[in-house]
């Protein structure tokens, strides 16, 4: 029998596509249960108000409304608050403030969209009618909205017991060494910058279906989640106080997440609790307007940064101060994003010997802010790569060469940075060189001249990013305050007739695990891909799982599958040794065949699987029947994908319109399983980064009203905005996981914004523009051009 | 008040009784349980709900069910011929034009409408033609490739 063709490293077309392309995907809103009620949530129209009387009868009077619940009802049942999974310890050992976050507000609302009540009705429209009819007395209070105001004396307080709205005031790195580096510096480059607040906008709105079965007292929550086991744990242990073995959480097909579907949201707990309360299934699906108001937002930093260099451009020290917006409540992983996912990345690809960063996290009367594609790492990369490019301008050095001069060299790995991480491997010059070549940097001046001849301004910008992915070694995460382990689990089960069912704790919501993971399993076990099924997203079917985020699915989840496969092969060798009457140590496994070394005696994987389930002559004291193994994999370190992005833009100086003319991405993701899927991940990530750089910005007015509350107001990237990209990969395999994989999901969103903004600043340099904020909309760019021209004219007078 | 409506959906005559405010997408998803057509927004911007009504694309989230009375509707479920995918569906698979799959039904229906109007679309035609469809996953590049290939496939009657 010929072994199936190996597919790892090739662009196998996705197996999951068939159901999505024919309308047979099964998303949460596609699920309906007999007798279900529909939930509509009543949300605060005020950024801050004291809650008065809620007249539930006003909604109950609406035809079709079956029940109305408020925060008081949940409190009476002893329901707890939504927890935060990461405790950050600030300066002087002061732990972060964790104010309560009841699923339905109690006493006070703290952001527009804060959840006040739920109306359950026989139809979606009746529920909405009931929600509209519900009379609630609000006593509006002053709100604090912007980071710059949140810490000011006399600012409105978001929580009574959180003085100055400070969640934590934290630092990392060696302050004394950094100060000393600055004292000895020949040049210091300074930068103030804002990382604009974003709204994630997975195209599938969040949804949840809660069910209760009185027969055995069990609950089922079907929800739009990237990590159903995490939701089960948080909801059972902290919110509803339910035994985990009585709760099943299912995350079926999920229409994009980008971080926003990691978190445990109020609606999940409410529909689960209410299902038992009324004895009927409860279904809720967000409208897009609710998504804008209640999906956790991303980014929202205000920072100052300083880079100290010697006279030839060698980096000596980096000093960073950042204010980070937490919104009104601490979401599931909010506290870790501006600390351990941000400041630990400030070394970038460079040998900067001394770094000190201070981060103050503040509460405001806005939607909670948490991880969004990249989570902290885009903020670090934007700051560092904008700063380095400014340094190059000030030092009159080529931005590529200034970077190259300061790169950590290949012979310096493993490399311990001054901000807690140890990079395992990389070759930063290799990706820079390939990107320079692919982008035709050598002939940039010609293109700039051609643009100029057309009345346009052309600029080029760089970004050499690094990220810490494969989240995370549990011991490290635990030492830094994580309240969970961050391993992954897998089970590989042979069925008697030779097909394989793989249960993974990773969750696919666009990443293509059903294909990529099957490629790995098929190659390693020597079975056809068509005989491998990947099962994910159900706590009742999968042993355990920490889910998908932080570009961890392949590096951590894939590694767990490999560990389970290794156990299968070990067990197979035992069975083969028995069947072939050989010593276990003499059995070799290759390409799906177990053979006795040096003989022609062999059995195929399929034959071994069959024997495992039909063990008519197994020595029962030595050999267990069955071929089903599970494994937990806890990574030894983070992984460190890195690369170089180069962007060329053309700016119309009359309109401020920016066209991304060419975008080059060269990434080192370690070993790649399916290049087509990886490239697709980069495409999408870059599009989101381009969105942040040019289009997207969440805007609140001074009263805390969300101005960008719909697709009419919040500019999403469309097909018209995205250029064709130029792509390539370099490869230094990860040294500490069995796949050599580093992860690829977030790179595009991390690396692209600084490349684009640097390019715009480069283009506008001749006009005297030295900075551009994100998003660089035509209006913003036009204003910067006008201001520079006015200032030039004034100087000339 | 309920209104009786009848329409032909994916070649099958269906009828129902709906509230006047019932949207076409609600009729498709909740009355007919054709859940391939999705709802991604409430302002007619995202295009996840696009279906063909009498051959032309409409956003079924901003079309009333009663407007479909007497019409012929094609949804994503009505494209494939048995197990043979429509050329545009095949092209999306061939060119990795989808990731999470949520925008995909609307994207495919819009692309088919575009090609019906512009048989050999240029990149610019496609970018403009898909302006009413949002995708957060793919960055559109592979969708562009897929639609080009799908257009060719529709010309020749072959898969992309």
TrEMBL record, chain A:
Taxonomy, superkingdom: Bacteria
Domain Aldehyde oxidase/xanthine dehydrogenase a/b hammerhead: 22-142
Record keywords: Molybdenum, Oxidoreductase
InterPro entries: Ald_Oxase/Xan_DH_a/b (IPR000674), Ald_Oxase/Xan_DH_a/b_sf (IPR036856), Ald_Oxase/xanthine_DH-like (IPR016208), AldOxase/xan_DH_MoCoBD1 (IPR008274), AldOxase/xan_DH_MoCoBD2 (IPR046867), AldOxase/xan_DH_Mopterin-bd_sf (IPR037165)
Protein name (database record): Xanthine dehydrogenase family protein molybdopterin-binding subunit
One Pfam family this sequence matches: MoCoBD_2
GO molecular function, one term: iron ion binding
Lineage of the species this protein comes from: Bacteria, Pseudomonadati, Pseudomonadota, Alphaproteobacteria, Rhodospirillales
PANTHER family in UniProt: ALDEHYDE OXIDASE 1-RELATED, XANTHINE DEHYDROGENASE
From TrEMBL, chain B:
PROSITE patterns: 2FE2S_FER_2
CDD domains assigned: fer2
Keyword Iron-sulfur applies: yes
Keyword Iron carried by entry: yes
InterPro entries xref list: 2Fe-2S-bd, 2Fe-2S-bd_dom_sf, 2Fe-2S_ferredoxin-like_sf, 2Fe-2S_ferredoxin-type, Beta-grasp_dom_sf, Diverse_Oxidoreductases
Residues in 2Fe-2S ferredoxin-type domain copies: 3-79
Key words of the record: 2Fe-2S, Iron, Iron-sulfur, Metal-binding, Oxidoreductase
Domain of life: Bacteria
Molecular function as annotated in GO: 2 iron, 2 sulfur cluster binding; metal ion binding; oxidoreductase activity
Protein name, UniProt field: (2Fe-2S)-binding protein
């Amino acid at each position: 029998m010929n072994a199936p063709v190996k597919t790892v490293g090739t662009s196998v077309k996705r197996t999951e596509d068939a159901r999505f392309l024919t309308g047979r995907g099964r998303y949460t809103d596609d699920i309906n249960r007999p007798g279900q009620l529909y939930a509509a949530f009543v949300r605060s129209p005020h950024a801050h108000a004291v809650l008065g009387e809620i007249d539930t009868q006003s909604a109950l009077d609406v035809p079709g409304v079956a029940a109305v619940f408020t925060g008081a009802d949940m409190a009476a049942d002893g329901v707890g608050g939504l927890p935060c999974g990461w405790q950050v310890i600030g300066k002087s050992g002061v732990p972060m403030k964790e104010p309560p976050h009841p699923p339905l507000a109690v006493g006070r609302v703290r952001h527009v969209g804060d959840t006040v009540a739920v109306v359950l009705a026989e139809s979606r429209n009746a529920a909405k009618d009931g929600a509209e009819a519900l009379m609630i007395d609000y006593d509006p209070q002053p709100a604090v909205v912007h980071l710059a105001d949140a810490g000011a004396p006399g600012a409105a307080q978001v929580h009574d017991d959180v003085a100055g709205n400070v969640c934590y005031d934290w630092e990392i790195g060696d302050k004394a060494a950094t100060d000393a580096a600055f004292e000895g510096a020949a040049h210091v480059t300074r930068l103030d910058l804002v990382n604009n607040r974003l709204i994630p906008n997975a195209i599938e709105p969040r949804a949840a279906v809660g069910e209760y079965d009185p027969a055995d007292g069990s609950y089922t929550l079907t929800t739009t989640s990237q990590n159903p086991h995490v939701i089960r744990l948080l909801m059972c242990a902290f919110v509803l106080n339910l035994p985990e073995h009585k709760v099943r959480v299912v995350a079926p097909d999920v229409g994009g997440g980008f971080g926003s579907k990691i978190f445990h949201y109020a609606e999940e707990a409410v529909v689960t609790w209410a299902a038992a309360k009324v004895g009927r299934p409860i279904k809720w699906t967000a409208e897009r307007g609710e998504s804008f108001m209640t999906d956790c937002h991303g980014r929202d930093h205000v920072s100052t940064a300083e880079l100290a260099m010697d006279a030839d451009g060698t980096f000596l020290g980096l000093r960073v101060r950042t204010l980070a917006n937490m919104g009104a409540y601490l979401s599931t992983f909010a506290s870790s994003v501006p600390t351990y996912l941000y400041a630990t990345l400030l070394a970038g690809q460079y040998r900067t010997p001394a770094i000190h960063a201070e981060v103050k996290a503040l509460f405001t009367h806005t939607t909670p802010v948490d991880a969004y594609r990249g989570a902290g790492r885009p903020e670090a990369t934007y700051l560092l790569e904008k700063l380095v490019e400014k340094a190059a301008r000030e030092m009159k050095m080529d931005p590529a060469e200034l970077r190259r001069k300061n790169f950590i060299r290949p012979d310096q790995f493993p490399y311990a940075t001054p901000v807690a991480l140890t990079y395992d491997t990389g070759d930063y010059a290799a990706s820079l060189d390939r990107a320079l070549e692919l982008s035709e940097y050598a002939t940039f001046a010609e293109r700039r001249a051609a643009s100029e001849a057309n009345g346009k301004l052309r600029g080029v910008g760089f970004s050499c990013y690094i990220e810490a992915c494969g989240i995370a070694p549990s011991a490290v995460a635990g030492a830094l305050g994580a309240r969970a382990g961050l391993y992954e689990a897998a089970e590989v089960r042979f069925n008697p007739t030779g097909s394989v069912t793989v249960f993974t704790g990773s969750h696919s919501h666009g990443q293509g695990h059903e294909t990529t993971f099957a490629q790995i399993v098929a190659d390693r076990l020597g079975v056809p891909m068509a005989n491998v099924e990947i099962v994910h997203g159900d706590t009742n079917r999968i042993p355990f799982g920490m889910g998908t985020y932080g570009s961890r699915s392949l590096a951590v989840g894939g590694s767990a599958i490999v560990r389970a496969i290794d156990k299968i092969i070990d067990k197979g060798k035992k069975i083969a040794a028995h069947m072939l009457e050989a010593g276990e140590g003499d059995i070799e496994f290759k390409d799906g065949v177990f053979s006795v070394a040096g003989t022609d005696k062999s059995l195929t994987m399929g034959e071994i699987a069959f024997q495992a389930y039909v063990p008519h002559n197994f020595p029962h004291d030595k050999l267990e029947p069955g071929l089903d193994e599970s494994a937990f994999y806890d990574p030894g370190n983070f992984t460190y994908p890195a690369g170089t992005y180069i962007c060329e833009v053309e700016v119309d100086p009359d309109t401020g319109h920016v066209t991304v003319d060419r975008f080059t991405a060269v990434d080192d993701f370690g070993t790649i399983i399916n290049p087509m899927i990886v490239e697709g991940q980069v495409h999408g990530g870059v599009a989101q980064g381009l969105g942040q750089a040019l289009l997207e910005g969440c805007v609140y007015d001074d009263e805390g009203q969300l101005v960008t509350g719909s697709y009419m107001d919040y500019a999403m990237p469309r097909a018209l905005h995205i250029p064709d990209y130029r792509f390539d990969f370099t490869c230094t395999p990860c040294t500490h996981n069995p796949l050599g994989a580093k992860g690829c999901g977030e790179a595009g969103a991390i690396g692209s914004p600084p490349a684009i903004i640097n390019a715009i600043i480069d283009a506008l340099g001749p006009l005297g523009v030295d900075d551009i904020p994100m998003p660089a909309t035509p209006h913003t760019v036009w204003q910067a051009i006008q201001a520079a021209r006015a200032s030039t004219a004034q100087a000339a007078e | 008040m309920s209104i009786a409506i009848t329409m032909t959906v994916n070649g099958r005559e269906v009828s129902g009784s709906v509230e006047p405010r019932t949207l076409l997408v609600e009729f498709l998803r909740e009355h007919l349980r054709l859940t391939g057509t999705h709802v991604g927004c409430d302002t007619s911007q995202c295009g996840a709900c696009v279906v063909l009504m009498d051959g032309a694309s409409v956003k079924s989230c901003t079309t009333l069910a009663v407007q479909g009375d007497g019409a012929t509707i094609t949804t994503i479920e009505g494209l494939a011929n048995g197990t043979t995918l429509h050329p545009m569906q095949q092209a999306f698979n061939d060119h990795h034009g989808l990731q999470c799959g949520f925008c995909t039904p609307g994207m495919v229906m819009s692309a088919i409408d575009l090609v019906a109007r512009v048989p050999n679309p240029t990149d610019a035609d496609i970018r403009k033609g898909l302006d009413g469809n949002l995708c957060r996953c793919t960055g559109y590049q592979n969708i562009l490739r897929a639609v080009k290939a799908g257009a060719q496939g529709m010309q020749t009657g072959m898969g992309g």
